[in-house]
């Protein structure tokens, strides 16, 4: 730390949200924190970089089972090693997630200083934000839970607010007394709060010691503390992850930390932050962060604007060129399997569109055509009533599980690299432009023995082609049968 002590801040990154307001780029199977929405790194990678280096301990990550290998891969790509990756049996909002991390850290150091933060926010100047965190340390060490508030620059209706206590300075460089938390306002209320100068945006970032937070839950929310403590105590190691115990976790309420304890605390404190910040909570926020041109248009490499203004045009695949003509105040976002078109002023309604897609059974509501796995990824290229074609990419040295399928056969054609293929008792090497057939019910495995990614085309045929038709016999990633990614 800057004062010369050995005190370290333990970052806790929350990495379990679905990010439905950024559909179709963010979906339940691969939410926004893993997307590259604002630069070459994913939002999760940017958060991990933000809180590493001098004064920070290796991060603790709290995530879901489906994302565990994505988290590990993204950290590995940027050279960051987590102190622990906690896996929630089910998402239960921020209060249980943050408390579980505090209890886990308290097992080794009850006085551990913890910074809990979402992993999907954008902060353009990490150094300035780290300075604000350090400025809040004395208050946290004194036994307070310090929240962080962002200086508003517009009457935003998509954020919660923090009202400063009388006499507090919204531009101070140290924590200020906080009067109350305020729900997301309507437009008129947001305008009035902005004019008053007494309100900050709620960033959802908190600094505290482990023992302070645990004590607050003991006093204000014991119904949360008891099952979360039991889930942490009975947690088990699984490869490089720590699985919280499922049975006690079922009794954990689904509640945010604001509702659980923060709004009940008598000594609220907020650290004002006047630097750049966004939670990327909608496509209007992405438009702002993409730095619109002189006409107010925010474009990507695969989009073209003709006579447009104040518009976001984004295509996430080179296979789809997105063209806007004569648009004003619009959002158009295209992926390989879905397109969103909306007024920019309606950006917060995208979540309702996802609900509508789920109701009609559209797979695009939650799933991508590309599916990430610990060994690599696959992309659905074409499908019909009794067939499906995939492009499969296997990382160097990685292997799929030893498995079989009850309802389908598979035909593999290697197009890049070399594959080691097991079918029944036979193990063979399959080179580029060679193929192999896997009959229905036959035990098989695919491995990449090379030093570069291996690409193959898989043609599935059969009466049922769902991903849950997998029986695993051996797996180096300790997965079960069916949909366990």
Structure description:
- It is built from twelve helices and 28 strands.
- The chain has 485 residues and is an alpha/beta fold.
- The chain has three domains: 9-273, Spore Coat Polysaccharide Biosynthesis Protein SpsA, Chain A (Alpha-Beta Complex), CATH 3.90.550.10; 283-358, no CATH class; 370-474, Sandwich (Jelly Rolls).
- Strands 18-19-20-27-22-25 form a six-stranded antiparallel beta sheet, with no helix packed on it. Strands 5-8-6-7-11 form a five-stranded mixed beta barrel.
- Helix 3 (94-106) packs across helix 7 and helix 3 crosses helix 8 (222-233).
- The longest helix has 13 residues, at 94-106.
- It is globular.
- Residues 1-5 have low confidence and may be disordered.
Which helices and strands, and how do they pair?
Layout: E1 9-15, H1 43-50, E2 60-64, H2 68-77, E3 84-88, H3 94-106, E4 113-118, H4 126-135, H5 137-141, E5 146-150, E6 161-164, E7 176-182, H6 187-196, E8 199-209, H7 210-220, H8 222-233, E9 236-238, E10 241-243, H9 246-249, H10 257-260, E11 269-273, H11 283-289, E12 298-299, E13 303-306, E14 312-315, E15 322-325, E16 330-334, E17 339-343, H12 350-359, E18 370-373, E19 376-383, E20 387-394, E21 402-404, E22 408-416, E23 419-423, E24 426-430, E25 435-438, E26 444-447, E27 454-462, E28 471-474
